[in-house]
From TrEMBL, chains A, B:
InterPro entries: HTH_LacI, LacI/GalR-like_sensor, Lambda_DNA-bd_dom_sf, Peripla_BP_I
Pfam family, one: LacI
Occurrences of domain HTH lacI-type (ranges): 4-58
Source organism of this protein record: Nonomuraea thailandensis
GO molecular function, one term: transcription cis-regulatory region binding
Keywords, alphabetical: DNA-binding, Transcription, Transcription regulation
Listed name of the protein: DNA-binding LacI/PurR family transcriptional regulator
Length: 341, 341
DNA sequence: TGATCCGGACCGCAAATCTTA
DNA sequence: CTAAGATTTGCGGTCCGGATC
């Protein structure tokens, strides 16, 4: 099967390949009539520029990378990632940019993967998710000089030249949840946090403490976890077993909140009569359990769209920056109620 | 930042670029001593071949594509896809093959996406998931001449030259589930199926009928759905409202089985005392609900590994074929019990 | 003189051919 | 004649310097 190249188009149109290139890239140098003729022929023959040839010549891959550094199990249960990726994709498609994906278990392998991509010039830029407070990937990525968008807060010490950040105000969201619970009369509130190494976990925990303090309250407890159902269940069991048990618990994702509901039922603790529960992520899962879960909800797909747009703009020479996405807002469902104790 | 090229290596080693190319690709033409010297220098300088240049020269992208043709919501809730992708990835990494991903809502756009990839020679081959019984993508893909691996049964009429298939015996799995339920004394069994257009839905439904018939039973009902929680809930409500209601229901995925449990509880139907429930997919979700769900379980990640391996072998000139993966086996948990009615 | 178009030099690698000892 | 290595060509585009009308 002979492949179609630019010279086939040139031949059919009776022009040089240079003219075809100009016509197709919308640059001056060919008359409008010729341009239209070339475009028509290319479309008719179904010709598309060879990505490798173009990439070689332009020194640009028209591809960006996304590395997910988590175990497949964790990724699978959290709908967040698929929604985010779908958003990223839909935006990238507009600029004919492809998405390269890697799923690896840890940061070391994540660095390896990105290093390979960049050394081989397979990607022009990177989307970095799941930022850690002290993230081993960042200095390495910076030294590689690879353009990137961080999904999360930019680092306080200033960012490398070709890095942007897209973030959401986690502190505000946590504050809203606390205010909501306090408004319902709760005073003994606990927090089941996510991975303590993650940047946004620390931000949320700090915001939790601040919000409680503002209400003149002190947290019953803040328990760190690894986001799994088992960890959520264990944390809940401990919290409910204590003498001064909480009347409300916030969880850093929906999976653990579900575990909380399950443990409460086993222990005969009524939700929401004796215990109110707030999930930190929203998904179909929150409406699948009984009672349905009050959750901090946001448009994750749009988050992906904005992230992709920010990266593409950066690669097109746009100026880097830090862009704030919408803040999650609380969606009240059945798992929260007034404090009756 | 000057980029490292093969000629930098050649210069440092004091040989021609041809010699470097031969040395790095393990082909004859250089002495062993020179080869080692070149290899050492390349490794020391951290050189990696430019993917575009290599791709252009070899007419091979060292990249494969995977298109997910479903809504982001559906994908997010089903852990299957992320696990599968993680498996695919881990295998592709071994041969330095990259994975291009697309998430699109329907088959029409899926065809577009693949057509673009192939026309631009961005991919060497494709992984095709979620096969339909009459799949509009297949004839188009075949006419494009793109090598592919079908995840699912090969078509009865014979396969294109450079297509393979990796499949799992859905019929056997469904049969095991029916046998298990019948063994528990159930005689009124219903099936809540997935998307009727999907190949494996039809295979499973046929196997369900056959298994029931073998036991001298006739199904209470087979209800088609779209895999969503809402559809699972609606189907369950209808089944339980009927005069001759089933004592056991099998669902084509875990999300719908969860919906089934939820609806049963709302209607005051005890699980498993009055109703046994079997989930067609296994995931953490099955252990997150109460009661935990008996499910048809399999190693999805390994499925992804095998699929990737099959595609890579095909691209390397291996002979195409149809390869059977392991069959899902039933894992009994709390949602099934003896028929007490 | 200027708009329009041609020819050809690259991009970085693989691989075939040519040269040298 | 053979092994080791140098030279050259081609992959399919982009884009610059010139030539033409």
């Amino acid at each position: 099967m002979k492949r179609l190249t630019i010279s086939d188009i040139a031949e059919r149109a009776g022009v040089s390949i240079g003219a075809v290139s100009f016509a197709l890239n919308g640059r001056p140098g060919v008359s409008e009539a010729t341009r239209q003729r070339i475009l028509a022929i290319a479309a008719e023959m179904g010709w598309r520029p060879n990505a490798a040839a173009r990439g070689l010549s332009e020194s640009r891959a028209h591809t960006v990378g996304l590395v997910l550094a988590r175990s497949a199990d964790t990724l699978g249960v959290e709908p967040f990632f698929m929604k985010f990726i779908a958003g990223v994709e839909s935006e990238l498609a507009l600029t004919r940019t492809a998405l390269l994906l890697q799923v690896v278990p840890d940061h070391a392998r994540s660095i390896e993967a990105v290093n390979d991509w960049w050394a081989e010039r397979r990607v022009d830029g990177l989307i970095v998710m799941d930022l850690w407070a002290r993230d081993a990937r960042l200095p390495v990525l910076e030294s590689m000089g690879l353009p990137a968008v961080l999904v999360g807060r930019p680092r306080p010490g200033g960012m490398p030249a070709r890095w942007s950040a897209v973030w959401s105000d986690d502190a505000a969201a946590v504050t809203e949840a606390v205010d909501f619970l306090v408004g319902l009369g709760h005073r003994r509130i606990a927090r089941v946090a996510g991975l303590p190494a993650l940047e946004h976990t620390q931000v949320r925990t700090a915001a939790f403490h601040a919000a409680m303090e503002r209400h003149g309250l002190s947290p019953v407890a803040v328990v760190d976890t690894d986001y799994t159902w088992a960890a959520g269940a264990r944390a809940t069991r401990e919290l409910l077993a204590a003498a001064d048990r909480p009347t409300a618990i916030t969880y850093d994702n929906d999976v653990m909140a579900t575990a909380g509901v399950s443990v409460a039922r086993q222990l005969g603790v009524g939700v929401p009569q004796e215990l109110s529960i707030v999930a930190g992520d929203d998904s179909q899962l929150c409406e699948m359990v009984f009672p349905t879960l009050t959750a901090l909800s946001r448009d994750v797909q749009a988050y992906g769209v904005h992230t992709a747009r920010t990266l593409v703009s950066l690669l097109d020479g746009g100026s880097p920056g830090s862009f704030q996405d919408t803040t999650a807002r609380l969606v009240a469902r059945e798992s929260t109620g007034p404090n009756l104790i």
